[in-house]
Design goal:
- The protein is mostly helical and 202 residues long.
- The chain has one domain.
- It contains eight helices and no strands.
Amino acid sequence: MRDEGLVRGASQTRFSPGLCASPIGAQLRYIGRMFEVLVYVYENYWQGDACPEPRQLGRKLTAAGFDADEIEAALTWLNGLQLAAHHTRAGATGEEGIGLRPERPVMMQPQSPDSLRVYSVAEQDHLGAQTLGFVSFLESAGVLPPHMREIVMDRAMAAPGEPLALDDLKIIVLMVYWSVGEEPDALVLDELCDDAEARTAH
């Protein structure tokens, strides 16, 4: 039986000290089953470099009570995250990061400060207006630079949901920070750990 601390919406979700005011799972009512696995990975392996190899990670996730399909989906998603982060990490030296095999190359060109990101029809349909609005809010606040935004968009397009739930996107943003070895600042944490229903439109 799954660890009760990982049940969706549980108030006693395991939690890394110093992040949100209360456990991520209790704050975000995420609906994607795969995202339960991602939250577990985030809370138990604070930095991507500490994450085990895929096979070992899969065994640990199985022991934690996750289903095989949830684990497979999460490992595939993390696979793409590792590759995207590797291609955007400054001064990348070829290290394996979290040790997951590349899923596909993600080519990202430098962006001019005056350039405007135009979202494709597919991106608009998959993310929806609310979720894209939140991405724009993080950009305007200066906490989601272009290279990280593109990782977020790449992983959002690889995540389930039509459209993608805002709480699921928040988990994706946390995982992108995790993958590049950066700790979100207070503003990011306040926004990412806030209940979507309690947010006002920006």
